[in-house]
Amino acid sequence: MRSHKPGFLILIACVGTLWLGLNGCLAQAPSAPFQKVLSHKAAFAEGDFMVLDQGETVIKLLPAHDKREIAMCGMVRLQAPAEMFLHSFRENMTRKSNPGILEIGSFRNPPLLDVLQALTIENRVIEDLRQCVVGDCQVKLSARMIERLQKEVEWAASDYRIQVTQLLKQILLEYVRDYLIRGDAVLIQYDDKSKGIHLADEQRELMAASSYDSLADIKDDARGLSKSDVALVESALVWSKIKFGLKPVFAINHIMIYKRPQNIGAQILIVSKQIYANHYFDSSLALTAFLNVPDPAPKSYLLYENRSRLDGLEGPFGKIKRGLIEDKAVNSLESILRQSQLALDARALNLETSSSAPVAVGRNWRRWKVGRVHVFVLLLWITAFAMLIRLARFRLERQPQQRHALLKSIFNLPLPRKEIT
Fold first, then answer.
1. φ and ψ at 253, to 5 degrees?
2. Residue 363 CB: number of other CB atoms within 10 A?
3. In the prediction, which pLDDT does 64 show?
4. Order of strands, edge to edge, in the sheet holding 101-107?
């Protein structure tokens, strides 16, 4: 089921991903605060929850105040308990579980250079860096990073590609180290275009628009619990290189897992904040929440939201690009949520019916690899940006026949569906 709000530029994560305007889900539960929070932004109606209780997914496109921003949220009902969902998320957080994920890893604290050993830098990126200057660069970097690459690499040397690879990894490592020590104060300013993009400002705006604070502040009147009881139980910096379109995207995300000691509202909140991307993304924030509704027959839901700002949605064809990306992304997220529901519910059912045979349950669960929640954003944006790249070639001066052929090829792009094995 899908809902469009008239008068707004309708948005997709997201992803991605990616982290999250999930203020939009309302259930017929005895908790009025829960209903109020989850109906505020995305305006999920009573009928939406009837659809959810029948096992279907509900996807909402969300409004945004920035032309570069695309936002959406989706929700599905689960039979699996919160701890099972969290265990699944943790064990798959840094696995290379999809062909679209080319390389992936996580930083330790303190981070060391060897964690980036598996990262490869394509020759095309290296050649782009050779021509890179502040305000005109094909790779997203800060002014200081660009200047270092131009000064410290001997571009006339025969091994300049090796020099670039080593220096770029060192620059990224230093950035991550600084971020772990000083936090958002050192988030990058992208200076690849004439107008700089300050990531700290971007992330503050995305977080303010998300539903994190509202979900975390739902109170359990019986126990007197509220936002102050939200506990950070895990924090990880994950890097990944994702295949889509003509340019693989290297990104670093800060993933934070929170738990709440109550049975009303969001028992688990997972925030994924992008602290770097070398292409396309100006910023990205995704939220995944395991929600519990205290009904006479308690219900649980998996809610996901992504808010991302892209550097390709402005200009004369921005609306065309947005509409095509949104349509494909909604279908992709709906498919991924459904697959995740099947995977988690299958695991819950196996645990109920086969508690005496844990080994068999484990083998059966591994067959349901499609349910890995951490790839939500990645799969979403694989589709979105494949289209964005192709649409960038669309120009008014082309002949009508050429435009028709291009649009036809875009609409025929396959969705990134994962097979159930």
1. -125, 140
2. 11
3. 83
4. 2-3, 57-61, 69-78, 299-310, 281-293, 265-277, 249-259, 231-242, 101-107
